[in-house]
TrEMBL record:
InterPro entries in UniProt: Cyclic_Pdiesterase
Protein name per its UniProtKB record: Phosphoesterase
Pfam families given in the database record: 2_5_RNA_ligase2 (PF13563)
């Protein structure tokens, strides 16, 4: 049975921060998806892409998204080490997309309580999350006191080929 691709919608960080994230991952010898902040996870984003036009219209009606990227954290359940993101705008865009797309099922982390983040490393077999967190806190210590703030002017449709694949940006949609 062939596995189907999956999509998400994300905001890309500035190139210099993306390069830092990739360098950090390379030092740990891990491969992850292109650095991004997810604004709509894959629930309701079917492989047939029937949802694309509605999502594209919602994005086109939304103003640019201001994000502040701070220091490293880990989710309590050990699922990932990430850079914290403060962005009421990203949450507002997320809620707009949920309202337009109305997925039949949503992930528990979707909704007004969404935690925007820029994932560094997923917690999986062979990954010492607490060790990676300590390394990330050292590598990104400068962001604790001085977060990087920027305005995202595009939302990226990101796609991965199936389980075990990595999300990569495939199409940019301009914000209003």
């Amino acid at each position: 049975m062939a596995s189907s691709p999956s999509c998400l919608l994300g905001l890309l960080p500035p190139p210099d921060l993306a390069a830092r994230v990739e360098d950090f991952r390379a030092g740990l010898k891990v491969r992850e998806s292109t650095p991004h902040v997810t604004v709509k996870a894959r629930s309701g984003l079917s492989p047939d892409l029937a949802w694309v036009e509605a999502a594209r219209r919602a994005v086109a009606a939304h103003p640019p998204v201001t994000l502040s990227i701070g220091g490293a954290r880990a989710f309590r359940n050990g699922s990932a080490v990430y850079l914290q993101v403060h962005s009421p705008d990203a949450v507002a865009l997320h809620l707009r997309l949920l309202g337009v797309l109305r997925p039949a099922q949503r992930f528990g982390y979707e909704g007004p309580h969404m935690t925007p983040h820029l994932m560094l490393v997923l917690g999986r077999r062979g990954v010492d999350v607490s060790g990676v967190l300590k390394e990330a806190q050292a590598a990104f210590a400068d962001l604790e006191g001085t977060p990087i703030t920027f305005a995202a002017r595009k939302v990226w449709l990101m796609r991965k080929p199936g389980p075990g694949g990595l999300y990569v940006p495939v199409e940019a949609w301009p914000l209003a």
